[in-house]
Amino acid sequence: MTAPVTTHPTAAAAVSPQESADAADPAEILAHARREVLEGGRGLDEAGVLAVLRLPDEALSELLALAHEVRMRWCGPEVEVEGIVSLKTGGCPEDCHFCSQSGKFDSPVRSAWLDVPSLVDAARQTAATGATEFCIVAAVRGPDARLMSQVREGVAAIQAAVEINVACSLGMLTQAQVDELTEIGVHRYNHNLETARSHFTKVVTTHSWEERWETCEMVRAAGMELCCGAILGVGESLEQRAELAAQLSALDPDEVPLNFLNPRPGTPFGDYPPVEPRDALRAIAAFRLAMPRTILRYSGGREITLGDLETQGMLGGINAVIVGNYLTTLGRPAEADLKMLADLSMPIKSLQATL
Ligand code: SF4
C-alpha cells in the first residue's frame, strides 16, 4: 500500500511556494515563515521546516517568538490539559526500539491490567485538575475482543461518572473497531506515526509505517478527532525530522503529541543521548510552523530533554500538556504544570468549549 502523503487535499491546500526555503540567511528564513505562516496561515512545507531546523542558535529566540505568535494568532492562548492512564501495561508484541513496554526487550516493565473502577478513579482525578481529555492507553499491536470489551465497559463507566472527553490509544485498528469506538463516543484516537517514513524500519520492524498511516486515515474518516504524533531523538536526521513534520501535516491531525526520547534501560535505544535542548526547542517551533492550527502537545521526555527550559517550549509553539505521570516514566506533579500555566497567564481550555 502506498500512503498518499503528497496527495491529501489538506496537504495540497497547505503547500505554498517556498521561495526562500533554500536560503541560508536566518533573517530571510524567518521573514519567509512570518509571511507564510503568521500572516498567511499556511504551514511551512518540508523544505521550509528543514531551513528552520537548521537555524543557528543566535536565531533561536526570534524563532521561538515567531512560533509563539503563530500559536496565539491561529490557536489562541488556551492550553489543553490531558491525563493518560494505562489500561494494559507492558508485554506488547511489537518491537518499537524506544519502548520499555515491548515484550521483546529486557526492560523492567511487566504486563498488567487496570480494572474499571480504577479507570474511573483516574478519570475523576484527571478532571479535578481542570483537564478536558482523558486518554485510555493499552500497550498492544491492536485491540483483541477482551480489550475492546474492557474499553467499552470503561468508557461507559467514565461517561456516567465524570465530565471529561474520553480518548483512546489502542494501537492499530480494523474498520469495525474504528466504527465501534466512534459509536461508543470516543472523542479522539491517538496513533502516532512516531518517525519519518524513511526512518521507520530503523525504529520498528514488526509493523510498517503504512499500517500506522492507514489506522490514522480510518480514524479521521470516521469522524473521531485524530491525535497523531512523533518521538524525536530516535536516530533520525534533521532531514527526516522535516520529512516527519510534512507527513504529519499531510494527515492534518487535530492534535500532535511531541515526545522526546527518554532512553529506557534494556531497550535497543537505551544508550541513545537525549535530544539536545536547543534542538528540541527548534523542533517545537518548526512543528508549530508546519501546523499552525494543530494542538501541539508536550508529551513524554520533556523533563529529561528540556528541564528548566520547559517554559521556553510553552512560549515557542506548544499549547497542550499531559499532566501527571506518563505510562512508564514519571512526569511532574500536576500542580507544577498548572502553576507553570498560571505563571504564564495561559488559561486552561474548558470542557464546555469542547463538548
Ligand atoms: S510503542 Fe506501542 S506498539 Fe510499540 S512496543 Fe510500545 S506499546 Fe507496543
TrEMBL record:
The keyword Transmembrane does not apply. Its EC number is 2.8.1.6. This is Biotin synthase. Homodimer. Belongs to the radical SAM superfamily. Biotin synthase family. It comes from the Bacteria. It comes from Frankia canadensis. [2Fe-2S] cluster binds at C135, C227, R297. Residues 1-15 have a biased composition (Low complexity). One of its GO terms (molecular function) is 2 iron, 2 sulfur cluster binding. Its cofactor is [4Fe-4S] cluster; [2Fe-2S] cluster.
